[in-house]
Structure of Gamma-glutamyl-gamma-aminobutyraldehyde dehydrogenase:
Amino acid sequence: MDQTQIDTLRGKPVAAFHHLIDGKAVPASDGDTMNVVSPIDGQVLTTVAAGTAEDMNAAIASARAAFEDRRWAGQAPAARKKVLLKWADLIEANALELTVLGVRDNGTEIGMALKAEPGSAAATIRYYAEALDKIYGEIAPTPGDILGMIHKEPVGVVGAIIPWNFPLMIGAWKLGPALAMGNSVVLKPSETASLSLLRMAELALEAGLPPGVLNVVTGEGRVVGETLGLSMDVDVLVFTGSGATGRRLMEYAARSNMKRVYLELGGKSPNIVFADAPNLDEAAKVTAAGIFRNSGQVCVAGSRLLVEAPIHDEFVAAVTKAADAMRVGDPLKVETQIGAVNSETQLQANLGFVETAVSEGGQIVTGGARILQDTGGYYMAPTIVTGVTQKATLAQKEVFGPVLGVTPFATEKEAVALANSTVYGLAGAAWTANLGRAHRMVKSVRTGVMHINTYGGADGTVPLGGVGQSGNGSDKSLHAIDKYVNLKTAWIKL
Ligand code: NAD
């Protein structure tokens, strides 16, 4: 990463963004816009269209028309592959521009953003592009003179709603398999992270994606998101975000056309450290990175540290040292390890969680406060709270901020019970040199993703999904494709 190039890009004014509907940049039907406030300094960066229900319905109609006339689904698989591969190349060619635009919008530190955003989006789109002509139907072993065939068909119009934390990466997790399978998509990005996603969608048109196949509508969730969720013309809804919104989407589906709904939601992921962990120093550093990178705004963040009692004090001291050494600040500086919190609202919510933790008996070991206020931006010190009981709010509710709660345990059985004591089940980790225990933890901790002696793993070949109230279905890997196809049985009399 070259700081001079980054500084040049950050100095550029950002023109107002419109929706992308039917291959064109379109303002809101009533001309309304929303300010985009940069979390780096609290200043207005530009505006996006404040979408109306009418805008969303126009985008859905465009996607429906594109699907019905088969301008995309009807193309040969090799032709669709070529377009998607070109799109991935364009994303890579414009990676720094996309990253800086995204960081100015959402505040993620640039080192992480460059890899996790365009880097991962391009890899995801390429992965599904390469897969698309290797996926086809089956001939069933049906008896006698009748042949049973199973076709795999695109579902139709996919509605995708995504959060602020990694718009390109999470957007690509939905767009890659949906478009590869021949669907049309209407995507609604977060109010506080739309810009780089809109730019990435423009690149899809440049790569040759026909107009109407991918539409992006910005605006309030309660307006355009709700219209998408309630539409009778959307066949599948795919979502990443909070449980509260996920629950609404299920209601929308029930109240409209019973569209399929796939949810990737929050977590309260346990990071369990046993006294026999192979390298406690390494475990401490990875633990700190596993909760504090991107200011804790990572769905799989290891936000609950469960430590075996005999090493509790020593390990907390090591994690505190690692946390205090992390550089918090301007996310567009290459040396920054923790950027800005996405919004003032989120920062205040984070501070509220810390206050509640203390009122419930927790002790702040480090952090606990807003910092760098003179920048005008939204920054919070990495925060560690010990003495968090199983029933405490900090042990039960997702903060989605840089706050780590610590709870000691005495036995493996207790560690598992604590790990499984929330409504969530997204990710988790266990640190141990005992092979049998490692396998037992993979089996007994109720999550979609489990790490042993590490935290994090970004490869697109494995699924990411949760159990319990962390969601259903999963993104990434070939398994994600199932969400975007219908199985159709054909009986042929021979
Ligand atoms: P959010 O639920 O507030 O918003 C997500 C999206 O839903 C936004 O685009 C928003 O505009 C839209 N929305 C809001 N209200 C809506 C409504 N009534 N109808 C339709 N759409 C509506 O979530 P967020 O705060 O943007 O994101 C943070 C959450 O996302 C955290 O809970 C985090 O854990 C979760 N997340 C999960 C994963 C995963 O893979 N499981 C990944 C990243 C983030």
